């Protein structure tokens, strides 16, 4: 497992995350009451200081009331302003030394503001969900909110017993006492803070397909009224899982869950081991199947293989976009070449001022980034040929499983599978703004 740490603050969100330390594990115990939208929580955070002594450090947390903070059992000095919990331990933490932080907080959770609207904890008509990409995690728990700081998680959530709690990871226990139920999930794989997913609602749970003794358990959590349409729309997800494991390597987590909320969502949202869809993505006609493929592909590209900072987001979205095209090709739909040609036509008519390698904060979710990112993968496929391309793709996922990557790392990785130089090709697609010509037809065999 290759875990790398970004050297400094994220250039797009310098107020989020603290590179002076890294977190090894979060243990979160939450109590949520939907009717008053009231959340109280305790976090136990096991962390390791960086190369310099740690006289202070920062956790990101929205405007809750802080009940208590402890560092290694001792009361520190702390301030909490502007979504930043600044902690000064009673005694500085030695360079490279482990330390433990405990935080108690409570309040009414709400999304945090961002250029894309509210992010993070969202109160629904009857329940709640978390959609944190890229900076919404502090809306519900204290964290070192940077994608490169990946940790394991244990998440305990207590709610009224009428509600189900779904989180990424393995359900360890479900315990009912009086009128409440406590759900405990474990996510042992390294997880970025924004990828900790959670849904609280009144759901029916179904098993998707038969995983067999060595397969990946896949569950759907759906409002009862949508079960019929869901069973058609997600019927091919088990087949998708088989295809993606063939193309990308073994599924990187223990299980995979999808949640469909009662309400509409602008777009589905991936979390680690979990994807969230709106009721508008279920129509009984597989009208959103490309999005089902997109979110599943993120489990490899974005979740297991994560970006070192947000400049590299095309490595998440371009790979997931190309996975849509690969699924279409493998399931009898349009080929990747046909879909690449369609994307190229669309991009040709749009402004050509987007640089994939550093799109800027305002453009990091621009549709052009997704489509051009997919075209990069198709251009590489055309240059390498199918056998080398799919070896490259599987190697990328397996070599960086649980770790973080950069655009430069991807360029170096591709070069190892090329028989001829690919520097100019990749530079034009990734670092240039002008749209290069449409890549030529790729071979059919997905070796």
Query: What is the CATH third-level topology name of the largest domain?
Result: Immunoglobulin-like
What's the overall average pLDDT, rounded? 95
CATH 4th-level superfamily of the largest domain: tricorn interacting facor f3 domain
Strand order of the largest sheet: 4-7-2-1-10-13-12
Protein name: Aminopeptidase N
Pfam families: Peptidase_M1, Peptidase_M1_N
Family: Belongs to the peptidase M1 family.
Cofactor: Zn(2+)
Structure description:
The protein is α+β, with helices and mostly antiparallel strands and 447 residues long. The chain folds into 3 domains: 17-114 and 136-189, Immunoglobulin-like; 203-300, Zincin-like; 306-431, Neutral Protease, domain 2 (Orthogonal Bundle), CATH 1.10.390.10. Helices cover 24% and strands 29% of the residues. It has 9 helices and 21 strands. The chain has helices at residues 227-233, 237-248, 289-297, 314-330, 336-348, 367-384, 386-399, 407-415, 423-431; strands at residues 21-33, 38-49, 57-60, 65-71, 77-81, 84-88, 98-107, 120-124, 127-131, 151-160, 164-167, 170-177, 180-191, 198-201, 204-207, 218-222, 256-260, 269-271, 274-277, 306-307, 404-405. It has a 7-stranded mixed sheet, with no helix packed on it. Strands 15-16-17-19-18 form a 5-stranded mixed sheet, with no helix packed on it. α4 packs across α6 and α6 packs antiparallel against α9. The longest helix is centred in the C-terminal third of the chain and has 18 residues, at 367-384. It is globular and about 65 Å long. Residues 1-6 and 442-447 have low confidence and may be disordered.
């Amino acid at each position: 497992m290759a875990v790398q740490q970004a050297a400094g603050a994220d250039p797009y969100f310098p107020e989020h995350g603290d590179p002076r330390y890294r977190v090894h594990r979060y243990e979160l115990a939450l109590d949520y009451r939907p009717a008053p939208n009231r959340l109280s929580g305790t976090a136990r955070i096991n962390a390791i200081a960086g190369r310099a002594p740690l006289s202070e450090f920062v956790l990101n947390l929205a405007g809750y009331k802080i009940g208590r903070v402890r560092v290694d059992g001792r009361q520190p000095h702390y301030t909490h302003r502007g979504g930043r919990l600044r902690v000064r331990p009673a005694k500085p933490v030695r360079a490279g030394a482990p330390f433990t932080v405990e935080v108690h907080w409570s309040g009414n959770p709400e999304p945090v503001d961002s250029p894309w609207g509210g992010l993070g904890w969202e109160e629904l008509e009857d329940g709640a969900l978390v959609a944190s990409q890229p900076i919404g995690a502090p809306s519900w728990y204290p964290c070192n909110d940077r994608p490169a700081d990946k940790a394991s998680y244990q998440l305990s959530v207590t709610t009224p017993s009428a509600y189900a709690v779904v989180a990424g990871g393995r359900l360890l226990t479900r315990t009912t006492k009086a009128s409440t139920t406590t759900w405990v999930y474990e996510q042992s794989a390294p997880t970025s803070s924004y990828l900790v997913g959670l849904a609280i609602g009144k759901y029916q749970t179904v098993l998707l397909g038969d995983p067999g003794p060595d397969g990946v358990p896949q569950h759907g959590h759906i409002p009862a009224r949508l079960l019929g349409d869901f069973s058609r729309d997600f019927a091919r997800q088990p087949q998708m899982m088989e295809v993606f494991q063939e193309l990308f390597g073994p599924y990187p987590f223990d299980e995979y869950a999808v949640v469909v909320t009662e309400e509409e969502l602008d777009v589905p949202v991936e979390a680690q081991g979990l994807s969230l869809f709106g009721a508008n993505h279920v129509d009984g006609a597989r009208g959103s199947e490309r999005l089902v493929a997109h979110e599943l592909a993120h489990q490899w590209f974005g979740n297991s293989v994560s970006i070192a900072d947000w400049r590299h987001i095309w490595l998440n979205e371009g790979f997931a976009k190309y996975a849509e095209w690969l699924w279409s090709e493998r399931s009898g739909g349009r080929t990747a070449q046909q879909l690449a040609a369609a994307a190229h036509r669309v991009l040709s008519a749009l402004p050509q001022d987007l640089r994939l390698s550093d799109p800027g904060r305002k453009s990091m979710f621009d549709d052009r980034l997704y489509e051009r990112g997919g075209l990069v993968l198709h251009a590489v496929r055309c240059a390498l040929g199918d056998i080398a391309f799919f070896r490259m793709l599987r190697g990328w996922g397996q070599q960086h499983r649980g770790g973080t990557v950069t655009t430069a790392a991807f360029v170096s990785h591709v070069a190892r599978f090329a028989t001829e130089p690919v520097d100019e090709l990749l530079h034009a697609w990734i670092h240039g703004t002008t749209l290069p010509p449409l890549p030529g037809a790729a071979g059919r065999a997905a070796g």
